[in-house]
Design brief:
The chain is α+β, with helices and mostly antiparallel strands. Helices cover about 35% and strands about 25% of the residues. It folds into 3 domains: about 200 residues, 3-Layer(bba) Sandwich (FAD/NAD(P)-binding domain); about 140 residues, 2-Layer Sandwich (D-Amino Acid Oxidase, Chain A, domain 2), CATH 3.30.9; about 80 residues, no CATH class.
Length: about 475
């Protein structure tokens, strides 16, 4: 791609218009007012994994980072519900079932706001009472909700338009990362240039346009399966989470049936090759898990939904630069919790975008110092001073490495959530890097995006067709 091919110049381009991509676009325009942002999707807004998501959220996390992300996401969704009337997010009573021997783990994994409270029995479910296996206990949990994720993504996109440009039905066929920008060629023939690109591809982690960057992340794609239980939920029915099986039984009131999600162990699948229909094996697997808790429901399960999602080895989302220039940021690998953690992933994406200029400045400083190293070594060697050459090489090389590693470390701290420490490290090293570049006679880097106090767009949402709600 050449600069002459470019048809649009932007600040940030987001690849993927699922719930994570749309939430990231919302947070970016709030943090950087006036920034030119575009979102690209090979299909339509809210398609892919978002369209097939159960949309369950509850205040839980298997690690401190994920618990923090769950808490932030819960707050953000509360703000969204106040901001957008009619947003398809519904509160749902929640009960957790687990072995008594794992009661301590529940206390660790669930947030204090969940208010874990032991109950004597599992609430009545469809076709009779869901039974409590021997040696198990039940706890009520506050903060449970479920959403029509496809509808939420569409409403977010509707409010972001026209300030954010959406390219639907446009596949990214090539990405080129340059020192000063990223260029993306679309299947439509258009070429976009941006200061930063955010990859939010859901399970499409091995797309040829970016698999060279995502392969080192060690991500895998796993099939996600849920059965539909053809029984109508009562108005006060709630979700039952089977903690030890990583499964749940959710009343989809807006659809008029229940959904049973269980853990399918089919790994290394492709979203291109994952059929949208269930197999007899998947139905049998789901029924076997459900029979332990609600044998009366098994005969009502013969349909459902199937897709896949990207998982990380740490079972926590990944938000980090993946290219050498630090201008392409991956945001995903939500481990089946894309909706539940989308606002927190978006917040980390904003912070990562805000560090791009410090990152690239440090790399420029490293390049400048490397040039000075070579020059100093050559002069010393010409003069015949081996000791001076070695000293120059060592001193300048150490400076160059430290400058880059310090900013990389600061970015890691920032993404991990330690804002104060990261800000201090980033500021100190960014100043040092800028001074080094200027001392070497390099041009000052482009003015970075300036973050402001987050203010979210308040454009009234237009009425959507009933099919989209």
């Amino acid at each position: 791609m050449s600069p002459a091919d470019t048809t649009s110049v932007l600040d940030v381009v987001i690849v993927g218009a699922g719930i994570i991509g749309c939430m990231a676009a919302r947070e970016l325009v709030a943090a950087f007012p006036g920034a030119a942002v575009a979102v690209i999707d090979r299909d339509q807004v809210g398609s892919g994994a978002s369209r097939r998501s159960a949309g369950l959220h509850f205040p839980r996390g298997s690690s401190a980072r994920v618990r923090g992300m769950a808490a932030l996401s819960e707050r953000r969704y509360g703000e969204l519900r106040e901001e957008i009337p009619g947003l398809p997010i519904h509160d749902v009573p929640t009960t957790v079932v687990a072995a008594e021997s794992n009661a301590g783990r529940l206390t660790e994994h669930y947030l204090p706001s969940a208010g874990l409270d032991r109950v004597r029995r599992v609430p009545a479910g469809p076709a009779g009472t869901v039974r409590l296996p021997a040696g198990s206990g039940a706890w009520s949990v506050r903060g449970g909700q479920y959403a029509d994720v496809h509808g939420v993504a569409q409403l977010l996109a509707a409010r972001l338009r026209p300030g954010v440009r959406f390219f639907e039905g446009a596949r990214v066929v090539a990405i080129e990362s340059c020192p000063d920008r990223v260029r993306l060629r679309l299947s439509t023939g258009e070429v976009l240039a941006a200061r930063t690109a955010v990859l939010a591809p859901g399970p499409w982690i091995e797309d040829h346009a970016w698999r060279g960057w995502t392969a080192p992340l060690g991500l895998r794609v796993k099939k996600v399966v849920a059965l539909h239980v053809e029984q109508r939920p009562r108005p006060d029915d709630g979700v039952i989470v089977f903690e030890d099986e990583d499964a749940f039984l959710l009343p989809l009131h807006h659809r008029g049936h229940w959904l049973f999600s269980y853990t399918c162990a089919q790994w290394d699948v492709s979203p291109e090759g994952t059929h949208s229909h269930l197999s007899t094996v998947e139905i049998a697997e789901g029924r076997a898990v459900l029979e332990r808790f609600a044998p009366g429901l098994v005969r009502h399960c013969g349909t459902g939904r199937v897709f896949c999602d990207a998982y990380s080895a740490e079972r926590a989302p990944v938000v980090r630069p993946v290219d050498e220039q630090g201008r392409v940021i991956f945001a995903g690998a939500a481990n089946g919790s894309g909706y539940r953690l989308a606002p927190a992933i978006a917040a980390e994406t904003v912070r990562a975008v805000g560090t791009v200029d410090a990152w690239t400045t440090a790399r420029a400083a490293g390049a400048a110092r490397t040039a000075r190293t070579v020059e100093a070594v050559e002069k010393a060697e010409i003069a015949g001073s081996v000791d001076s050459a070695e000293a120059a090489r060592t001193a300048c090389a150490v400076e160059a490495v430290e400058a880059v590693e310090a900013v990389e470390a600061a970015q890691s701290v920032w993404i991990a959530g330690s804002v104060d420490s990261a800000e201090a490290a980033r500021t100190a090293r960014a100043v040092e890097a800028v001074e080094a570049v200027e001392a070497a006679g390099e041009a000052r880097p482009a003015e970075p995006l300036r973050a402001s106090r987050p203010t979210h767009p308040t454009t009234p949402a237009p009425d959507l067709p009933r099919s989209a709600q």
